[in-house]
Specification:
- The protein is built from seven helices and no strands.
- The protein has one domain (about 5-200).
- The longest helix has about 50 residues, at about 115-165.
- By secondary structure, the protein is an all-alpha fold.
- Residues about 5-25, about 210-215 and about 215-225 have low confidence and may be disordered.
- About 80% of the residues lie in helices and about 0% in strands.
Length: about 230
């Protein structure tokens, strides 16, 4: 089990105990739910930044013979936005990992309070279900990070290459590289959409009576906990 997997599983653990917890327990669970929702927002922001970068790359090609300077300025701005979004994406995942020890400790304490075997079994079953859901989130998060790395790296290289010869012939010579980088961005965006869909599914499980938002919508509301 990798570090990121352990991190997201700890979030599931905290939320699991919200229904039977004492006051400190439900506060931990609410904090965990908030982290899930914030991570979902960061995923949406990162996806938008990837899309903006792809558009900026295309605009450089489209304006090679007319106004490449303006298109290049837009590309540079898009690169900056993506760098910021990717950094926040990584930080959110790292924050979840760092809080893992506290969530697991609280989880173990609360499960130890359950004396009725039937109730304990229900809690264990619920934990297993959430572990599976958060395990999928973990896998998709890792997949998204792996797809973002080459795109961000190549995007920087393309900006440097195009900026060194901002002419029609220079941009034309870089066309194949630009198109390949756009493809990397499309792959990253697709993976982020998968991750958003899984986070929406988790949010729906954790928030009774509230449907999950659509994959292309970033939620500004906190994720609730089991009653």
């Amino acid at each position: 089990m990798n570090r990121l997997h352990r991190a997201v599983v700890t979030v599931a653990a905290a939320v699991l105990l919200a229904g039977c917890a004492t006051s400190p327990g439900y506060k931990q669970a609410e904090k965990a739910g908030s982290n899930v929702d914030q991570f979902r927002t960061e995923v949406g922001t990162t996806s938008q930044a990837v899309g903006g970068s792809i558009t900026a790359l295309d605009q450089v090609l489209q304006n090679a013979d007319s106004n490449p300077h303006k298109a290049f300025a837009s590309l540079s701005k898009a690169v900056g936005s993506l760098d910021d979004a990717a950094a926040k994406f990584k930080k959110r995942a790292d924050d979840m990992r760092e809080q893992g020890a506290a969530y697991f400790k609280q989880w173990d304490q609360q499960l130890g309070m359950l004396k009725n075997p039937e109730i304990r079994q229900l809690a264990v079953e619920r934990r297993t279900q959430l572990q599976e859901s958060f395990g999928r989130v973990s896998d998709l998060t890792q997949k998204a990070r792996e797809s973002l790395l080459p795109f961000v790296s190549d995007l920087h290289d393309v900006r440097t290459l195009v900026g060194s010869e901002l002419t029609s012939s220079g941009i034309t010579a870089a066309k194949d590289v630009i198109k390949r980088t756009e493809g990397e961005g499309a792959a990253a965006k697709s993976t982020l959409a998968e991750l958003t869909g899984e986070l929406n599914a988790v949010a729906a499980k954790l928030t009774p009576g509230q449907p999950a938002p659509q994959p292309n919508q970033a939620s500004g509301k906190g994720v609730g906990v089991m009653p």
